[in-house]
Structures are given as C-alpha cells and as structure tokens.
C-alpha cells in the first residue's frame, strides 16, 4: 500500500544527440557552458560541492551527489519548498549519445513546479543542443 501524500513524481527528458558523451559532458560540467544553456552558476564537478544556479526569477541551491565522468551526473535542486534531484545519464550509441535527464521529487501538491519543470527542461535541452552544435 502506498501513501499518495508522500509519493513523488519525476520529469524525464530523453534525446538521441549526435555528439559523443565527452562533448556533452563538457557542456554539463563546465561553468561557462552551463551558463549558456541553463543558468549562471558556480558549478564544479566534485561530489559534495555546493553551488547555485541563478536566473532573473531567483536562485536554485544545489549540491553535487554523484560524478562519473562521461556517464552520470547527479545534483540536488532545491528552491523554495521544492526539494528534488536532477540526474543526467549519458549512454553512447552508434550515432552519438542517448542523453537522459530525470528530475525527481515533485510532491502531489507541487503541480505548478512539475508543469514548470516539464516546460523548462524542454527549453533547456534545446539550448543545450545549440551549445553542443557550436563548441569544438
């Protein structure tokens, strides 16, 4: 039996990207590139590192949870009363990389956050793909 008050939902975005995992990893972990597709930040790909993402609407407090270069990156994503975790998974394919992002932790009473994330991550992915097409 599950308690619907404590169940959380996730936003998942998956794409086949025509770039190798190493190139995508750079865009996910280099602060100046993250700023181009996501937000201003003081990110470092070190487990335990606390960092902020900032935009005109406010800031997101984060902490790196897991780093496996070119494979997995996970960090907390806390803003106001939303406590969630973002996990990136990169899987090489014959044509590039299967890129998966999951943001887990949306409570049933956080429909506005959930819908905002569904919309926002689509936009962030589009920005990320533009950055990937431009960088060497």
UniProtKB/TrEMBL annotation:
A Pfam family of this chain: AHSA1
Source taxon at top rank: Bacteria
Coiled-coil residue windows: none
Domain Activator of Hsp90 ATPase homologue 1/2-like C-terminal: 19-132
Residue intervals passing through the bilayer: none
InterPro entries assigned to the protein according to its UniProt record, in alphabetical order: ASHA1/2-like_C, START-like_dom_sf
Alphabetical list of Gene3D superfamilies matching this protein: 3.30.530.20
UniProt family annotation: Belongs to the AHA1 family.
The protein, known as: Polyketide cyclase
